[in-house]
Recover the amino acids of this structure.
């Protein structure tokens, strides 16, 4: 027997139940297509919640390139543009410069932002474009087959490094976020996670800060979110979260990297 969810909610409220959580209107009803346990869904929700809470839904434009979030516009109930692989910050730059009153952000994975899009990312940050960049770092190419990414750890196995990453063959893990923090065009740079309730709350504050900073026109705000890829890592979600804490966090420690100087 089918249940009328909306009527069920009304009945509960009529009986004195209280609403403790409601999905933001900035997310569509399209079910997420991400693997169970992946952090993309949480990151999507936080960004969309912040946009709604700030009252800037009609004034925000998102940019998502190729990667696991290539169809993010199916989930975001805001204006959004798809960019070619690695070109999200270039597209975001054009949108922001022609619509300076809008809040503009890019949403990119590590293979996109720190590999094919390295040049665009570096020069966007060096120019100090007044946008927000949300960088999902799971240390692997998730959508295209589990290949080694610039952020893959030493010894980390992938489809293109089946025996694990070796520094003398593949080079060292690239912490592009730390490098970008050294550029004068970055105003706010932080690294967060979403695998626990405490980290979710802190990450949401960072996302809010990134959007608030656009009102100041001081440059790029970059929020890296370290998360897992249990499918690409060949683990269950709990195993992946444990491995992430033991291996990813030491290489990519959480916390603020660059914060605005007090006047």
């Amino acid at each position: 027997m089918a249940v009328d969810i909306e009527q069920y909610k009304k009945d509960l409220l009529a009986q004195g139940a209280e609403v403790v959580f409601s999905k933001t209107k900035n997310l569509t009803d399209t079910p997420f297509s991400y693997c169970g346990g992946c952090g993309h869904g949480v990151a999507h929700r936080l960004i969309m919640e912040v946009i709604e809470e700030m009252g800037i839904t009609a004034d925000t434009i998102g940019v998502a390139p190729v990667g696991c979030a290539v169809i993010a516009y199916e989930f975001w109930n805001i204006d959004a543009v798809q960019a070619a692989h690695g070109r999200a910050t270039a597209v975001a730059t054009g949108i922001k410069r022609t619509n300076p009153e809008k809040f503009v952000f890019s949403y990119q994975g590590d293979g996109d932002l720190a590999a094919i899009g390295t040049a665009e990312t570096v020069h966007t940050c060096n120019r100090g474009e007044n946008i927000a960049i949300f960088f999902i770092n799971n240390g692997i190419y998730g959508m295209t087959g589990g290949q080694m990414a610039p952020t893959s750890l030493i010894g980390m196995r992938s489809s293109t490094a089946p025996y694990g990453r070796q520094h003398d063959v593949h080079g060292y893990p690239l912490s592009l976020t730390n490098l970008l923090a050294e550029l004068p065009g970055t105003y706010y740079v932080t690294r967060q996670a979403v695998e626990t309730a405490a980290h979710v709350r802190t990450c949401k504050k960072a996302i809010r800060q990134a959007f608030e900073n656009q009102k100041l026109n001081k440059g790029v705000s970059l929020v890296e979110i370290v998360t897992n890829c249990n499918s690409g890592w060949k683990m269950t979600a709990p195993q992946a979260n444990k491995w992430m804490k033991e291996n990813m966090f030491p290489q990519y420690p959480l916390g603020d990297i660059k914060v605005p100087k007090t006047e």
